[in-house]
Each structure stands twice: as C-alpha cells, then as structure tokens.
Amino acid sequence: MPGSIALFIWYLGTALELAFVVCSVRRRSFLGYFFLNLYFLLAIASSVIRHLSLAKFGLDSAQYRYAYFYTDALLTLALYMALISLYARVFGELRFSKYLRLTAVLLLLGTALFSYAVVAQSSDRLSTTTFAWELSQNLYFVGLVLTYVLWGAVLKLRETRTRLVQFVLSLGLYFSAYAASFALGNLVSRDSVLVFVAPALGCFLPLSWTITMWRHSDETRLVPAQLVAVPR
Fold first, then answer.
1. Rounded Cα gap, residues 94 and 104, in angstroms
2. What is the set of domains in the chain, with CATH numbers?
C-alpha cells in the first residue's frame, strides 16, 4: 500500500474533483462545461477502480498496474476532449467547430498510431502496459502544444471571458507539470513518480478550476493583455 501521505493526496484529489462537479451543478454550468465535468466524473470512477484493485491485489500486482495505466489512458483521452471543448468555445463565433472536430480526431488517431508504432518495437508489448503509458505520454505532449496554441489564440482574439481564460491558463500549467513528470519518469523509477508526483499534480487542476467556477460566472470579463504583455 502507498504511504499515508500518498493516500492523503490521492483522497484530496478525488475530493477536489467531486467539488468541481458539485460546484458546476450549483452554478448551473454542468451542461455548459460538460466535457470538463465528464473528465472529473471519470477521474472519480477511476479512483474507485484503482482503490479496489489496490486493496484486493496490492500495489505490485499486475492487476493494479493494468487498472492504473489503462484508466490513466482513458483519463488522458477525456482531458483531450475537454481541451477540444475549450477550443470550440474560443473559436465558436468564428464557425470553426467542424474543422476543430476533424483536426482533433486526426490528431488523436495519429497519436495513437504513433504510440502503437513505438510500442510495436518492444518485445514485451503483449504482457505490459507499455502502450497505455506511451499513449498517455504522447497525448499529454500533444495536449501541451495545443493548450499553448489555444492560449495564443486567447490573447490574439482578445478573449475576455474570465472562466474560459483561467481554465485555459490552468490547463497549460497542468500539462506542463505533467509533461515534466513524464520526462522524469523516463529517468527514474516510474512507480516513484506515479505514486507521489502524479497525485500531487492531480490536485492542482480540480482546485484551480473549482475556484474559477465558484468565483466567476460566464458573464465575468477580464482583459488577457493585463496578464501577459503582447507586443503590437
């Protein structure tokens, strides 16, 4: 079993995920930000699955490893869809939604095929969770790039919706931190990174988004240029 600190961070992250969903319902924004809420609902379900696998089979069991890595891949896909939904909000008035969906599907398929091609070179691919790990790692990299592209669009289009701006900014910081943890995982033991670093990082996004959801409405406005100086 993980140590008491790791378990506390794990439970705290799950509580914060639930807090965002509850806050969305209270603020009548659940459907408006459906994919963000779907991501956190899947995260809560994944935590339950992982906890049951951990309690029944143990931390070093193959069953727990499969439960962890494959639910992680599912959550990465869900977060990718949440990011695309933010794209749709930013570019909604420009009628780019159809092209965004097509581009998102092509990027997703391309990332999956690339991940499989990398794993196909490994002789142990049939008995490990290498593909799920590789897919998550590559999707986080794609998500990181897309988030910063979206942030550039927010500044370029002078987006003023406070919720949307802060959601995108928080997601960029989250992807950056997770990309760093994946890079660190290639240098040290994966278990040490995933047990301690990943749960701690997992608390940031629901905490940031919950505060944003609670403090601001869709009518709240700000000027992104006040956050980052953009040369004209």
1. 17
2. 4-226 (1.20.1070)
